[in-house]
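Give me structure tokens for this 226-residue protein.
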Amino acid sequence: MEYESLFKAARKAGTALADVEPERLGRILQHAARLLRGHTPALLEANARDIEAMPASSPMLDRLRLTPEEKLEDHYWETPAGREKLKAMAEAVSRSDCIIIDTNDADGNRSTRRYAEQRQMKVEEMRQRIADSIGRTAKYLIEADGPGAGGTCRTLMITGGDVLIQTMGELGVAELHPICEMDPGVVLSSFTCRGQKRYVLSKSGGFGPSDQLLRILNKLNRTIEE
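Here you go.
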């Protein structure tokens, strides 16, 4: 089935569901949820294939997955390929309200572990190199964003204390000023970089509900609208 046919069918179904009584609608949604859970591996695999097939310039690409080489090679971002990838990231950021830079592999990080083992990297060295890579990436995106209130890279969200420290170090930031707790364990702070005020949401990695990122994004959007 072509995408256009799928979209038309989804719109038609949405219109029909608007007139369904709440009890029946609840049963329908529960059944849909069970189907999604039952097909999760296939859906994730298909999504990964779609993302990998997209060119870096695609406006639909809002999750930028770093490869093992990009995460673990010390001077990768200084190579021609690295510089081109950073430019593509900056273009994606300029087109979207929200971009995720993902350090997880589509295969459950097996590729990164294999890449590290081939180079005899220990776990601590892997963690440090990944934090370094994210820090350098954030620095490039902020510098490419340019001065002025119209900049697009205004707020960062960083998971993991080591990544936060490395990113702030790359930006030359020595102080963070906490503003509030946006969600349990997630702190909104301000910082000044190159004379311009920006914001960072920070949280420890490895915990939190599955919908936490979405909740925080909705809170930020409501704050902006107000």
